[in-house]
Each structure stands twice: as C-alpha cells, then as structure tokens.
Design brief:
Chain A: It comes from Lutimaribacter saemankumensis. Chain A: One of its GO terms (cellular component) is plasma membrane. Chain A: This is Cell division transport system ATP-binding protein. The structure holds 2 protein chains of 2 kinds. Chain A has a domain of 65 residues. In chain A, a hairpin with a 4-residue loop joins strand 1 and strand 2. By secondary structure, chain A is α/β, with parallel strands linked by helices. In chain A, strands 6-7-8-3-9-10 form a 6-stranded mixed beta sheet, sandwiched between helices. A 4-stranded antiparallel beta sheet of chain A has the order 2-1-4-5, covered by helices on one side. Chain A has 8 helices and 10 strands. The two termini of chain A are 27 Å apart. Chain B is α+β, with helices and mostly antiparallel strands. In chain B, strands 2-3-1-4 form a 4-stranded antiparallel beta sheet. In chain B, helix 7 packs antiparallel against helix 9. The longest helix of chain B has 43 residues. The chains are: A alpha/beta, B alpha+beta. At the A-B interface, helix 2 and helix 4 of A face helix 2, helix 8 and helix 9 of B. Bound molecules: adenosine-5'-triphosphate and magnesium ion (MG).
Chain lengths: 225, 302
C-alpha cells in the first residue's frame, strides 16, 4: 500500500529523517512514536504525498510519488484517510457537510451515501452535532469529526496524527476503539502518538507494531512497553 | 484538453451547487467586481462607438476625397451659360474624369437654403454655377486641368476638396486608432482588476483550498469554484454596463443632417450588435485571468 525505500527528508537544514524503509502491509496496525519534533508528522506527510522525499523512494499503491502529477496525488488521497494533527475544516459549512467533503469533491455525493453519512456520524457520536459549525465544536468533537471525514470514503489506509492529542482518557479510548474496529474491517492503520498508555491499551485488542523515530532513524520498538 | 462544447458551457453556467458552496461567499469583493465590470463595459461601449463613428467618417470622407471635386464658374450673367458649356466640354475631354454635371437651380437652391432660407430667387442673383465632377479611380491631373481651364474658361475655379478634407480624414483615422487603443486598455484593466480580485479571494480562502486539496480534490475542481464565480460576475456586470451604455448613446440628441462629428457617435444598422460582443469578451477575459490566478496559487500547495 505505502512503501518507503531508503527515504531521507530535510527541510533545508540538516536531515530530519534518514534511511527510512517501511512497507505498510494491508490490514496492519502501526503506532509511530518518538519525542516531540522527532519527525512523526513529517513522516506521515511523506506517506500522503504532502511532502516529497529529499532522497529515496516513496510508493503509493505501487507508484513512485515523484512520477505522479497533481491529479494522481489527489486520486491517491481518496484512498488514504488522514486525521491531521492540526485538524482543519471548512468553517462555513456544518459538520455533516465537512464529514462528507471527500465524497463531494470526488463526485460521489449520492443519496445512498447520505445514509452512510448518518450512520457514520452516530458511530463517532456526533449525530446531535451534525448541523453545528466546526468552530462550535469541542476539541474532542473536532478529533472525532476528523476521523469520520478520514474514513467516509472507506479508504484502504488510515493515517492518524495525534488523534487523541487534546482529549481526555475516556474519549481517547473511544477513538482508539473506532480505529481498532476499522482495522478489524481490514483497514491499514497508522497512528502517530506519544501517549504510551494508548499504545498499551491497544495492544490488548490488536496485533500492533510500534515504530519509534529516534536519532533520525525508524526503529521497531520492543514489546516491553 | 478537448474543445468545450455547448453542454460543457451550459454545465459551467448552471454550475455544481455543491462545488459552489465549498467557497464561502465574499460580499465586498463580489460587489466590487460586478461594479468595475459594469463600469469598464460602459466605457468600452463609448470607445467602440467612437471607433465605429470615426471609422465611418474617415471612410466616407476618404471616398469622396478620392473621387469627387467641384468646379465653380463665376461670370457675368450673360456669359455664364457659355462658360458652363465650355467647361463641360473641357471636362469631357479630360482623361480621368468619369462624368461632369452642372447642378440645376433647384440643387443649388437646396445647398444655399440653410443659409438664406427657401425663398431665395436664385435666378436673379449672380450666384456661381457649380459643376460636380466625378473622377475615375485613377483620378485626373488637377494641375493640367487648371491650366486648360484658365485658358478656355476664365471664370472657372477648380476645388478638388483635398486641401481642407485631408487633415479631417487624418484626424478621423487617428481618433479611430485612439478608440481601439482605449478598448484594448479597458480590457487590459479589466483583466488586471479581476486578477487582483481573484487573488484576494484565493488568499482569503487559503484554508478552504488547503482542506479541499487534502481531502482529495483535484486542482480543476477547486479552480472551477473560483473561475465560475468571477466569470459569471463579470458577465453580469458587463451586461449591465453595456445596456446602460447603449441607452446613453440612444438618448444622445440627434442632428444627423448637420453631419457633425459628435452627432455621428452611434452605431448604424447591424452595428448595434457590436457592443453585444463586450459581455462575452469580458467573461472570457475574466475566465482566463481567474484561471491563471488559481493555477498559480494551487501550484504552490502540496
Ligand atoms: N515546514 C517546515 N519547515 C521547516 N521545518 C519544519 C517544517 N515542519 C516541521 N519542521 C521541523 O521539523 C521537525 C519535525 O517536525 P514534526 O512536525 O515532524 O515533528 P513531530 O514529531 O510531529 O512533533 P510533535 O510530536 O510535536 O507533533 C521539527 O523540528 C520542526 O520544527
Ligand atoms: Mg506532529
């Protein structure tokens, strides 16, 4: 699905990430940890072609991102659901429209999808807030709306960047639950977080691999969390 | 890209309601764009009218200049007929003269009427006899004709119109050129103004564009929302401007017979359709300008 082959990334200064190689297998569940500023968000941006690697090769669904044009990248993003660290919405449209945005922009905004939309909204517990505007949502509600938006296209891969960043433990658990359920449905999941408790909580429910960015490199963390 | 056919143009005008909602409405920029488009179209109508009118005038005068002249015979009353006959004979023999015709008393009276009133007794006044000379396309040798006339018809004066009409024709041609330059400048200004407005809208909606891009919208989808708005807005504004401009020209007081320059400002016959080209042309300018502005903005986004 997403493959990184000896990838390096720098923002112009020294290299932030070096010699990164990883293959996200279908149906796998990964955590990505590392200290703040280590490059977790940067790594995920490489995975949805918001950034181009400065060296090495990133392949999305078998295609080198360097050979993709802007339309190819747009099409690939429809198959990758992303929960961004700084979640942004169209603030003038209600939550329901924002969650349905990926459908709208890809021209799949049909009637039977509206049934799915309602189901999805109640699944993330936002049914009552469907008509609210994004600026009226709480932090946790924003995170859940972002997750709903990330999965509405039924993407093959879901990348979540600190999805539990500013919500309490109970809500974090609930969100994790949603992601675990998606994984059981066959989705490939990658969660960037520095919340070790969350990782521990997940380990009881799924076969999760934990990756750590340390010293610019990607390491597989031990099972001793 | 394939050539857009009519259904595509229709789709563009009807639009995608969903796509339209993606970009929040922009009150002040929208109104300003509409207003400026209307003002520019209004000016374009006048520039166009000026070009057309002066063009017509230059052509007409240029034509007459090239092909007609007047012979004036002033002589004592008892000689005037003889001299007229002599002059006509000379003219008939002159190469380059297509025809020559002495004006009748009625025609002379009609020419004088604006100055002296209808009851002028032409016959009793020592009015010179006028002979209208029409030239062949090659023209005649004015110098040679003058020499011959001075020998055979002492009272004849050849007025070949060139002296006083040439500067007028030159001025009219220059005015026509200025009119076309004005039209170019007007459309150029319109393009610049729409580019500025579109850039402002694109900048104000940077977050919207970024979000759309991140959820998998293609550049063309995002651009369309902006391009459509500005194109239709410009079309609407220009249509209003043209309507007001045409009305203003129709309301100009007319005094066609005097044939002055100002009163000639207007279109004739099918020429009235000419200003109708302005709104679609303005819309095209808006389309291209917004398209380029959007492409420039999107190119820098991940
Ligand atoms: N656009 C950018 N230009 C220059 N430097 C950047 C840019 N984005 C990020 N960085 C730098 O790259 C480093 C890694 O940033 P990144 O956002 O990937 O970290 P992170 O691991 O996600 O951190 P956090 O846990 O705080 O979210 C940081 O030092 C950051 O300042
Ligand atoms: Mg981060």
């Amino acid at each position: 699905m997403i493959e990184l082959d000896n990838v390096a990334m720098s923002y112009g200064g020294g290299e932030l990430l070096s010699e990164i190689s990883l293959q996200l297998a279908p149906g796998s569940f990964h955590f990505l940890t590392g200290p703040s500023g280590a490059g977790k968000t940067t790594f995920l941006k490489l995975c949805y072609a918001a950034l181009m690697p400065t060296a090495g090769q990133v392949r999305l669904f078998g295609t080198d991102v360097r050979t993709m044009d802007r339309d190819d990248i747009a099409l690939a993003r429809r198959r990758i659901g992303v929960v961004h660290q700084d979640v942004q919405f169209l603030d003038h449209l209600p939550v329901a429209d924002n969650v349905a945005l990926p459908l709208t922009v890809s021209g799949r905004d049909t009637l039977d999808e509206s049934v799915n939309l309602r189901e999805l909204l109640s699944w993330v517990g936002l049914k009552a807030r469907a008509d609210a505007l994004p600026p009226e949502l709480s932090g946790g509600e924003r995170q859940r709306a972002a997750l709903a938006r990330a999965v509405i296209m039924s993407p093959d891969v879901i990348l979540a960047d600190e999805p539990t960043g500013n919500i309490d433990w109970e809500m974090s658990q609930r969100l994790l639950q949603l992601l675990v359920e998606l994984n059981r449905m066959g989705k490939t999941i990658m969660i960037a977080t520095h919340d070790l408790n969350l990782i521990r909580a997940a380990k009881g429910q799924v076969q999760a691999r934990v990756l750590r960015i340390a010293g610019r490199r990607l390491q597989l963390a031990g099972a001793d969390l | 890209m394939t050539r857009p056919d009519l259904t595509q143009i229709a789709e563009f005008i009807v639009g995608d309601v969903q796509a339209d909602r993606m970009v929040p409405p922009t009150g002040i920029t929208a109104r300003l764009t509409l207003l400026s488009a209307a003002a520019m179209a209004f000016l374009a109508v006048f520039a166009l009218a000026l070009s057309v009118a002066t063009g017509r005038m230059a052509d007409r005068w240029g034509d007459e200049l090239a092909r007609s002249s007047t012979l004036r015979i002033s002589a004592p009353a008892d000689q005037i007929d003889a001299q007229t006959q002599a002059a006509l004979r000379v003219l008939e023999q002159t190469p380059g003269v297509a025809s020559a015709r002495a004006l009748s008393d009625e025609e002379q009276r009609a020419l004088l009427e604006p100055w002296f009133g209808p009851d002028l007794p032409v016959e009793t006044l020592p009015i010179p006899q006028l002979i209208e000379v029409t030239e062949t396309p090659d023209g005649y040798d004015a110098q040679g004709l003058r020499l011959r006339l001075s020998a055979e018809v002492p009272g004849a004066v050849l007025d070949d119109h060139t002296r006083w009409r040439r500067p007028l024709v030159d001025a009219a041609s220059r005015l026509r050129l200025l009119g076309w330059v004005s039209i170019l400048l007007i459309f150029g200004t319109m393009a610049a103004m729409i580019t500025l407005a579109a850039n402002a809208a694109l900048a104000a909606n940077a977050q919207v564009i970024a979000v759309l891009r991140l959820v998998g919208a293609r550049d063309s989808y995002i651009a369309k929302a902006f391009v459509r708005r500005y194109t239709l807005r410009t079309l609407g504004g220009a249509a209003v401007g043209v309507a007001v401009g045409i009305a203003a020209i129709l309301l100009l007081p007319s005094a066609q017979t005097a044939g002055g320059f100002l009163t000639g400002l207007g279109f004739g016959g099918a020429g009235w359709l000419l200003p109708l080209v302005i709104p679609p042309l303005a819309a095209l300018v808006a389309f291209v300008a917004t398209h380029m502005a959007a492409a420039r903005t999107l190119r820098d986004l991940p």
